[in-house]
Design a protein that fits this description.
The structure holds 2 protein chains of 2 kinds.
Chain A: E1 2-11, E2 14-24, E3 29-33, H1 40-47, E4 55-60, E5 63-64, H2 69-75, E6 76-79, H3 91-101, H4 106-119, H5 135-147, E7 153-157, H6 165-176, E8 182-187, H7 190-196, E9 199-204, E10 207-212, H8 214-221, E11 225-232, H9 235-243, E12 248-253, E13 262-268, H10 271-284, E14 288-295, H11 299-307
Parallel strand pairs in A: 3-8, 3-9, 6-7, 7-8
Antiparallel strand pairs in A: 1-2, 1-4, 4-5, 9-10, 11-13, 11-14, 12-13
Chain B: H1 2-17, H2 19-46, H3 52-76, H4 81-86, H5 88-94, H6 99-121, H7 123-131, H8 137-163, H9 167-183, H10 196-202, H11 204-212, H12 218-240
Classes of the chains: A alpha/beta, B mainly alpha.
Chain lengths: 319, 248
């Protein structure tokens, strides 16, 4: 069980995590969702005892991470965002080292290493040097070292980032086989969070914006739509005009892409009135409507729904 | 304790798994062997009949110390700088392993390697003893001095290595100040009279020299122990700084 209680973390004067509280029950798989710079990694580093919180507390199965770091760390398997391995060790030797550091000796260590190798599909690379592995295998070794020692709680920071589509599918399949453990994984991909997790914790600029089930979030998103529009006309004028359409809460202008006109993305709680009014509004000003397309709701749309049209920095990568 | 042993063994494995240690060992034994030969020839030519401790062993041990000043930074530079560069430090700091155990395992493994280098030099006195037996107590004192000197150099090197992710920079910033600290009292006439006591108090040479003639003085032992302790303390503070500094 992971319990986060009024957690705040400052870097100097910059507040990275601001008064966040939530609990993840035993055996539950939860996602920490948010754009880059929203505080996901900071929160995970506090959870793993890498650094203490500025205020608030974090308990892993009832053990306070700041007060009993060794006991809490023993229960956690952590996969950092950037999996770094010792290039001079083979996969097997590296995992044996991790098992020993986590307090396993003799037969228990050998069993833990063999189990992790098999579970993560590392048999064919087990005796290769870690420095020579592909990104996909490195990520799996990262997961294997988190699993060694039978940690009840897994904290996985962006487990699929940087993987190719095939590797991403394999990693997700692997993560599904770990059901039964308490798991918190961070991601900035809404569909990934929905596919893997029973609960989603959403962060924006260090603040907790929502905690909900994937179904609950889908319901909230049902009314949100995104329209992709391409108009030939003065970009500023078009943007201002589009913002006045009924129901539109946000207008983003696309970068010049060499095609005719300028692309805009409209977010609307209910897209239909905007869709109906769009053509007439553009024609009335003498501009040309080149394209209208509805797109699936994205994390940005979810943020529009949750934190309002100001966007609160959603989708703007920072850090 | 088991975690400490695991990291200690991994560190030793990393040392002996890389060619650097073998190159450093070869160079160290070649240089000290050359000094042994040249100092012995010097003693036989000019100092025969004089006190062997002052006219041969002292010179040899001071020469060995010079080689150590260049060898130790090559051994300490990777300790934490490489973990930082690779990014493995983050994981290491989230294992059930205290900062103290990390520092102790890294410093301990480094001292084992340095100990092996110093053990290699035992062949010189063993050979002289074989030709002409002599009293061993002063040599034990001299080796104690070398061990304490190495401890200071290694803990300073570990500290520098904790500050940067560049091994080359860590190596340079370890070797140069050590050399300066050694040479500080080289030319006492060039030092202002007012600062001379201070220079003498912090000069590595002034504290090592008594050992090289077989004298163990408590204040010298204290100087080495205190300096090493200070750098170990400073390394721990650097590791701890992640608690209040930025993301990395």
């Amino acid at each position: 069980m992971i319990s986060v209680d009024h957690l705040t973390k400052y870097y100097g004067t910059h507040c990275a995590v601001d008064d966040v509280s939530f609990t993840i029950g035993r055996g539950e798989v939860a996602a920490l969702l948010g754009p880059n710079g929203s505080g996901k990694t900071t929160l995970m580093r506090v959870l793993t005892g890498y650094f203490p919180p500025t205020a608030g507390r974090v308990c892993i199965d009832g053990e306070d991470v700041a007060e009993q770091p060794a006991a809490a760390r023993r229960r956690i398997g952590y996969l950092p965002e950037q999996v770094s391995l010792y290039p001079e060790l083979t996969v097997r030797r590296y995992l044996a080292f991790v098992a020993e550091v986590k307090g396993l000796g003799g037969r228990a260590r050998r069993a833990a290493v063999a189990g992790a190798i098999e579970r993560c599909g590392l048999l064919e690379v087990a005796d290769r040097l870690a420095g020579k592995l592909s990104k996909g295998y490195r990520q799996r070794v990262g997961l294997a070292q988190a699993l060694v020692g039978d940690a009840d709680v897994l904290v996985l920071d962006e487990p699929t980032v940087g993987l190719d589509p095939m590797q991403t599918v394999e990693m997700r399949t692997l993560l599904r086989t770990l059901a039964g453990r308490t798991m918190l994984l961070s991601t900035h991909i809404l569909t990934e969070a929905s596919a893997l997790c029973s609960r989603i914790v959403i962060l924006s600029r260090g603040r907790l914006v929502a905690i909900d089930t994937p179904e609950g979030l889908a319901r909230r998103l049902a009314g949100v739509a995104r329209l992709l529009v391409r108009v030939d006309g003065p970009a500023d004028g078009v943007a201002a005009e589009l913002a006045t359409l009924p129901g539109v809460v946000r207008v983003e202008r696309g970068a010049p892409d060499g095609l005719a006109g300028t692309a805009f993305a409209l977010s609307a709680r209910d897209p239909e009135p905007a869709q109906r009014a769009l053509g007439a509004a553009v024609v009335a000003r003498g501009w040309t409507l080149l394209e209208v397309r509805a797109s699936a709701p994205s994390l940005e749309d979810l943020f529009v729904q949750l934190v309002g049209p100001a966007g609160d920095g959603a989708g703007e990568p920072r850090g | 304790m088991q975690s400490f042993v695991a990291l200690f063994r991994k560190e030793l494995r990393s040392y002996f798994g890389s060619p650097l240690v073998y190159l450093v060992t070869a160079a160290f034994l070649a240089y000290t062997g050359y000094y042994f030969h040249s100092d012995l020839v010097y003693f036989i030519t000019f100092g025969f009949g004089l006190n062997i401790m002052e006219n041969f062993w002292q010179i040899l041990f001071i020469d060995i110390r010079l080689v150590l000043i260049f060898a130790i930074p090559l051994l300490t530079m990777r300790l934490l700088a490489e973990e930082r560069r690779l990014g493995t430090l983050e994981l290491l700091l989230t294992y059930p392993l205290g900062d103290r155990a990390i520092v102790a395992a890294k410093l301990g493994a480094c001292l084992v390697v340095i100990g092996a280098l110093l053990a290699g030099t035992l062949v010189y006195p063993a050979w002289v003893y074989h030709v002409q037996p002599f009293s061993l107590e002063p040599l034990i004192a001299a080796y104690l001095g070398l061990v304490l000197f190495s401890l200071v150099c290694a803990s300073y090197g570990l500290f520098v290595s904790s500050l940067t992710d560049s091994q080359v920079l860590a190596g340079f910033l370890t070797a140069l100040p050590l050399l300066l600290l050694w040479l500080l009292s080289w030319n006492e006439a060039a030092t202002a009279a007012g600062t001379l006591p201070l220079v003498r108090a912090i000069s590595l040479f002034n504290h090592f020299q008594p050992f090289s003639v077989g004298l163990v003085e408590l204040r010298d032992v204290f100087y080495f122990a205190f300096t090493a302790g200070f750098f170990i303390w400073a390394t721990l503070r650097v590791l701890e700084s992640r608690q209040w500094r930025g993301r990395r």
